[in-house]
Amino acid sequence: MKKIFSGFRENITYPDSSNFRLLIQKNSYHIDPHWHPCVEIIMPLSRDYQVKIEEETYHLDKGDIMFLHSGTIHALTGPSRGVRLIFQFDVEILYSLREFQSLLFSFPSFFILRRSLKDPTYTAAESLLLSAIWESRHKRLLWEASLYALVLELYTLLFRSSALQMQVFPGKEGRQISGHQENHPYQEKFLAVCQYLNQNLSSGITLEMAASYAGFSKFHFSRLFKDFVGVSFSQYVTMQRVHKAKLLLLTTQASITDIAMEAGFNSSSTFNRVFYQSEKMSPTDFRQSQAKLKN
């Protein structure tokens, strides 16, 4: 049997020299905790499936769709006679677009669209994944270009969905959000503000600058921002800077000082202090602990 694991890391081999791997997995199946640098989408086509992430087990019913972000350690278990779609693709497809770069900083390690909720986002996502199966099977002219377009359309759909926004922005928990709700114009505006902030983390972005970008007074913006996002402006910026720093620590060999500057901290000492408060370890210890786990 061909070795596909190196420690915890799964070595993904894309067929046909492409950037996509689509499998129809059948019968009983189990993989111990592992990770890979690609994005993985899982959809049971018959029966159920179990995905374990950080000691928590998530049950996927037939038709549910799970999006696993790159670098997420997970274990998989499927029953006998079960069938499920496994769709993997190079995360650089998403990072190649500037608009996605900033939003991906806020993307959770995983996200589930439940079939039972009958959300319009689910229906559209299911249709796109079925189209991906068709393209992968038939491999007509420009099939890989078609898969590329399907992935971009799928993630555009996700980032615009209220379901993902509720998971990304804690201030939305418990609300009934729909495209027709009263504050929909603010919803669009503050998603644009968050994208603007994520694109400018390395600069000295201020509350006044963000308020001006949104077209509100500083005090009105501050109140609306916390209502929408669930945390204050300064807390959000700090959270995103720490998140960007974590990605840089995991994916580059840059020095701690360079990462601090790239993530928007004004000094390495401030970066070390804020990072420790957030993660309960120093940036150096975080990088070393992840290296031991993933190598």
Write structural notes for this entry.
The chain has 295 residues and is of the alpha+beta class. The relative contact order is 0.09. A hairpin with a 2-residue loop joins β1 (5-6) and β2. The chain has a five-stranded antiparallel β-sheet. It has twelve helices and eleven strands.
Mean pLDDT across the residues is 82
Share in β-strands: 15-25%
The gyration radius over C-alpha positions equals: 20 Å
Helix content: 40-55%
Any low-confidence stretches, pLDDT <50, length ≥5?
1-7, 170-184
- Note the run of SSEs as H and E: EEEEEEEEEEHHEHHHHHHHHHH
The rough form would be described as globular
What is the count of helical runs? 12
For the largest sheet, list the strands in their spatial order: 3-10-5-8-11
Question: What's the layout of helices and strands?
Answer:
Elements: E1 5-6, E2 9-10, E3 20-26, E4 29-34, E5 39-46, E6 49-53, E7 56-60, E8 65-68, E9 74-78, E10 83-89, H1 92-95, H2 98-104, E11 110-113, H3 120-138, H4 143-160, H5 162-168, H6 184-199, H7 207-214, H8 218-229, H9 233-251, H10 256-263, H11 268-279, H12 283-294
Antiparallel strand pairs: 1-2, 3-10, 4-9, 5-8, 5-10, 6-7, 6-9, 8-11
